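Quick one, T. Sequence first:
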Amino acid sequence: MTADLIQRGTPYETALAAGSPQRPTVQRSGDDIYLLYTGGTTGLPKGVIWRHEDLLFAALGGGNPGGDPVSAPVEVIDHARRGRTRCLPASPFTHGTAHWTALSTLLAGGTVVVDTGRNFDAERMWGLAQAEDASILVIVGDAFGRPLADALADDPDRWDLGELVVILSGGAILSPVVRQKLLEHLPWAVVVDGYGTSETGGQGQMPVWAGQQQASLPRFHVDEDTAVLDDAGRPAPPGSGLIGRLARKGHIPIGYLGDKAATSETFAVIGGHRWAIPGDLARVEGDGSVTLLGRGSSSINSGGEKVFPEEVEMALKAHPDVFDAVVVGVPDERFVERVAAVVQPRAGHVVDRGVLQDHCRGVLADFKIPRRIEVVELVQRRPSGKADLAWARARLDSSAG
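Structure tokens:
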């Protein structure tokens, strides 16, 4: 049996009418396989293999997003009958943040609003949110959040967004300055910064309301299956200050498609538990929340000091002349690596490298200040909104000397 191809732009009702009225007879199981490819920010994308049951409880809200996970399939039906959420994913469905929230919304009986544009456009997105009474807008970090915030600032009375109560971001940094600007124009809403990876599902959230004090680094309240592990594989005590690897046990993937070596490295049995350890470094605060420092493979070793690019990027993007920035380490004969940045100015603004470095000195330790700043017309990002680190390094290499 072969499936007919549907041309782009075909109305849903037309495609549905052309389909067979007979549903295929398929035996379903919680062991059925789902495959999600990583974004490839730090290397080639990998296919992450999930069991359907594990995906449901790790990434899709357990059949009851925002409430207690279901214990029987019939409960999914009960919750779906009461579902009223209208979810608008702004990022491509190739990104886990977008299609996980879409699937969880559909499972809960809600409505998913699909943007049919070929490229992201902030004004069109706000217009769609208004026209469809979206209650949740899903974005991926600053790449989506900043243009959306700028569109509201440019024309604050253009859209009626009273039904929008949640902006959910995941998969990339959402800077405090961007969260603040969104909340200035949507003071009744909550901006939720979510944390999770393709290898772990959703692990934690940080909701922020208008007027609330914001942490300088991403900080999340995590679930009971998430821990920060030290080098010996022991969970770090709250308030210890220990920097370890952020990990999750319980409902986690089977492994990577066709890559046994990477599977054994990322999915390890420690202390009698099988953990997913994708590489993010973090510390546990005194109240049990987790501060995310960054991906260990992306950290910069400058004179023996560890620099996390995400912290430097947030400092750079807090400057009013900067629209976007990507930070990487470049080789240095004396310090092994030095911090370098590729920066995109705001429209109509000029970036002065010295001024930008002085700005960073006001919020960062000296060894974290970018020693090289390359100004470009456009910071290149992947369609998902994640940074393209290979492009940033190549851009800095081409301008060296």
